[in-house]
Design a protein that fits this description.
The protein is built from 29 helices and no strands. By secondary structure, the chain is mostly helical. The longest helix is centred in the first third of the chain and has 52 residues. About 2% of the residues have low confidence.
């Protein structure tokens, strides 16, 4: 302490000098970094200007390949690999451009470097390549290995480099989770069938040991991207002792099947596509699995099977104790080939869960007049208000009201009148009145006024009053006035 007091001036000056030197060093580093980034972008812009058109012409096959390749080999410097990568893959190549991009990457030595990075081998050229990247020094030192591995895996996936799949499969167990995710996406892009077991094994590991760093979504998305012909490889997973494994396996197959069905309206699963063993497991095991999620996800797959047992199995699932299983079963039956099952489906209109009731109404509407008839019958006969509300909402949501009014105008059957009456009693009159307002059908307007002009629904009453004052047709206006008077008499009574 006495020393500091005696030499206070020297101490203060020393501290000031240290602070100034530190500040100067930081300023120098910032200026150096800025100058380096400016040189980087100037070089990148120059290379884009000189070689960008050549790369574009090569990818579109507008110039001779060898000629363009030789021009790109003219790029020199310790940073050539990085800038070649930028020129080739700055924009993701289209499906038609991928073969050329892959060939260029191989001939320019990029694939070899990416494979080296992914396997964890970093030579002097790799270091130079890394230093050419625009990330900061601290980031490069701390995350160099991860950055190069992830970027290399991504690039190999972009160019669909099939021979690299073993390295990508190995990267599924990399210590860094982002490298694992990128490797999974790259394997999905390449689509090499031999990599399917590695992805499936990783899926099992994630499900059985949830602490795994790789996300379930990443690995599942990769497996789903494979063609349906790979589905039989999930056979053992469907019978695994772990319920989560069984659920994920059946859900992957479901997504594969629904993707194929979306491309082909007449899609059917038969032995030539699916194999007899897999269909047997679905029909005899999955639909009776202890895990309700497995039963639920199996229903959509079973609905596409050509096996005669498919329909009875789906009808069994309609009565499942779990509401979400019934929901998936009802939705799975929304195909016209199941029209003969409309009566069993209509029983779900009084289900205890509103989503199942809604799905049942939507499924019946798929069946056209047959389904609409079932809905109308149920609407008129059921005492369940929730069920009636659900049917009325679906009729409005699916645009059935205009068709119903058209039939009502020309039919002598009282069925349409009764259905409209039920809708009015439930207060579901907005769509009806919107149709009447826009309709020029004089017969329809007169008939509706006669049957419902005195109905107590406030929306109908407002419409009738508007007709009574603004309707140009004298006969319809007089009828509306008459209905107003009748309604007033009924109210007084």
């Amino acid at each position: 302490m006495p020393f500091l007091i005696e030499h206070i001036t020297e101490v203060v000056l020393s501290i000031v000098v240290i602070v100034l030197l530190g500040t100067g060093a930081l300023v120098a580093m910032a200026l150096g970094r800025r100058q380096r980034r400016e040189r980087y972008f100037e070089r990148l812009d120059d290379l884009r200007q000189r070689f960008g058109p050549i790369v574009a012409a090569l990818l579109s096959r507008k110039i001779e390949y060898e000629r363009g390749l030789e021009a790109l080999k003219g790029i020199t410097g310790i940073d050539r690999l990085y800038f070649l990568e930028q020129l080739l893959l700055e924009k993701t190549p289209t499906v038609a451009q991928v073969p050329v991009a892959r060939q260029l990457s191989e001939d320019l030595g990029l694939v070899k470097v990416w494979q080296s990075h992914l396997s964890g081998k970093f030579d002097i050229a790799s270091l130079h390549d890394a230093l050419a990247r625009p990330e900061g020094i601290l980031q490069r030192v701390g995350r160099l290995n991860f950055i190069l591995k992830a970027k290399s895996a991504e690039n190999l996936g972009v160019i669909r480099h099939q021979p690299s799949w073993p390295l990508l499969a190995k990267a599924l167990t990399d210590p860094h989770p982002d490298v694992q995710s990128v490797a999974a996406r790259a394997l999905a892009a390449i689509g090499e069938t031999e990599s399917f077991p590695a992805l499936l094994a990783r899926l099992h590991d994630i499900l059985i040991h949830p602490s795994s760093t790789l996300s379930l979504r990443s690995i599942k998305s990769a497996l789903v991207s494979f063609p349906l012909k790979e589905a039989p490889r999930l056979m053992l997973s469907l019978q695994h002792e772990h319920p989560r494994v069984r659920f994920m396996a059946v859900d992957i197959i479901r997504e594969m099947v629904e993707r194929e069905a979306a491309l082909n309206e007449d899609f059917v699963l038969d032995a030539s596509i699916f194999g007899p063993e897999l269909g047997e497991v679905l029909l005899t095991h999955c639909c009776f699995d202890d895990n309700g999620d497995v039963r639920a996800r199996a229903a959509p797959i079973i609905s596409y099977l050509s096996d005669v047992r498919a329909t009875p199995v789906l009808l069994t699932l309609l009565d499942d104790p779990q509401w979400f299983v019934r929901l998936h079963a009802v939705r799975a039956l929304a195909k016209r080939k199941f029209m003969s099952q409309s009566e069993q489906i209509s029983q779900r209109l009084t289900d205890s869960h509103w989503l199942v009731r809604e799905a049942a109404a939507q499924t019946l509407l798929v069946f056209g007049r047959t389904g609409v008839g079932q809905l109308a019958t149920h609407l008129l006969n059921t005492q369940d208000r929730y069920s009636r509300e659900q049917i009325a909402d679906e009729m409005q949501r699916t645009g059935l009201i205009p068709t119903l009014l058209t039939q009502y105008a020309t039919s002598t059957d009282k069925r349409e009148t009764q259905v409209l009456g039920q809708l009015a009693d439930l207060g579901k009159t907005s769509y009806m009145l919107a149709t009447l307002i826009s309709s020029s059908d004089r017969t329809l307007r007169k008939k509706f006024l006669t049957d419902f002009g005195s109905h107590p629904d406030p929306k109908i009453s407002a419409w009738v009053r508007k007709i009574a004052t603004l309707e140009p047709d004298t006969e319809i206006r007089s009828l509306a006035i008459k209905m107003i008077g009748k309604s007033m008499d009924e109210t007084e009574a």
